[in-house]
Amino acid sequence: MDEFNGSFRFLLEKIKQSVKNSFDESLENLSKINTVEIEDNSKLFMISHMVGRIYARLQSRSGVKEFSEFDYYLDIDFLKMKVPMTKEKWKKIEQSMRDYFFTVAGQTKEEIIEAIKQKLISVKESGGNFKDFEKEIGSLNLEKAVHPLVYWQNVANCQEAGRYAQMMDDIDIAPYWQYLAVLDNSTRPDHAAMNLKVFRHDDPIWETWFPPNGFGCRCMVRSLSPEYLERKKYQVEKGSAFKDLKPDKGFEGNVGKSLDYWKKNKKS
To answer: How far is CA 266 from CA 84, 242, 262, in A?
Structure first.
């Protein structure tokens, strides 16, 4: 065990030294690590990404976007299940159904909305990034300001939907979920008030408070085991005690649960 702990401390130190700059620079630095000391650089990179991404999301969205392109949890099915719809129609449908529709601000033609959705799916399935998406939709004459909103909000939804599925797979060993918010001048008051709160995975609060909980929301949820919960002295709360806290209007839902429901009914 001591030998393992020593190796892991060495690994973390190498990671901290290597992932200080852009994605490409970090990848280049990681590739230079002595292969005698770390035999499998691909494993090193995978671990460094997992550790680095979680750390980065707890700090700031700035500078993290390139790393977020490589999210292991991203589930593109969350986009595939969506039906194109204009914003005006979308506003009139029931909140619980909104995850099943794809809408773009300022677009009044559903065929254009569908074309944008398909281009986004194509870019993500081919491993592309935001710049690739901008190139793909260039012929559609969208307002430039709409590009990042469409891309990052939908990528965030896909990431969190996939994350929800992974966390549900782990409820046998980690049945407690903790809300984590980025605490800075941009944090919404209700999101900040939810920071570090712990609830059981089946608490009804997750019906409305699973990220993203607003445009550009940087919050996340992590799984906790009973052992970790006890060691950190976290208190398990009841969601009913936090009814006064609300996600941003239009985000009162759970993207992961919506996707899970769609997949189960698709098979039946």
So the answer is: 18, 34, 6
Residue 102: both structure tokens together: 């794809």
pLDDT at 50: 53
Q: Using omega within 30 degrees of 0 as the cis cutoff, is the peptide bond preceding 212 cis?
A: yes
Which of 218, 222, 209 is CA-nearest to residue 254?
209
Helix (H) or strand (E) holding 221: strand 220-224
Q: Which two tokens stand for residue 18?
A: 């290597």
Q: What is the DSSP string of 169-194?
A: HTTTT--EEEEE---STTS-HHHHHH
Place of tokens 């984590």: 180
- The whole model's pTM is what? 0.69
End-to-end CA distance of the chain: 48
- Contact residues for 229 (Cβ-Cβ < 8 A; gap 6+): 176, 198, 236
> Could you tell me which of 101, 53, 58, 55 has the C-alpha nearest to residue 73?
53
Residue 6: what pLDDT? 54
pLDDT in tens, 236-248: 999 999 999 999 9
Q: Residue 24: CA atoms inside 13 Å, Cβ hemisphere, count?
A: 0
In three-state secondary structure terms, 200 is strand
Round to whole Å and give the CA distance between 182 and 228: 21
Residue 55's pLDDT band (cuts 50, 70, 90): very low
Helix/strand/coil for 236:
strand
> Is beta strand 220-224 parallel, antiparallel or unpaired with respect to 176-180?
antiparallel
Mean pLDDT on 84-95? 90
